[in-house]
Amino acid sequence: MPSEHAEAPLASEKTSNLLLEQIDRARQTGATIGLGGDRLDRPGYFLEPTAITGIDERNPVFNRELFDPAAAFHVVDSTASAIALANATPFGLGT
Question: Which part of the chain is the Aldehyde dehydrogenase domain (predicted)?
Fold first, then answer.
């Protein structure tokens, strides 16, 4: 990969389309795409780095793993709320 590219491509067109569908579903259910959310204009399966905000427990990306280059952000009002949400996830958590 040329050094002027900071992004790495996704593995396949299927993977790229799946992530774009997840981003669209998040948007359709009230999330804000604060950054990115589209394909990059270059050959290959490149997507813009994407930040999804304004999600809650009803949003489909709330309990799904999004893979690079997308991340969803959920604001909580306390440490206790953050811990409760983290403990309720089906995903493994690192320390």
Answer: 8-94
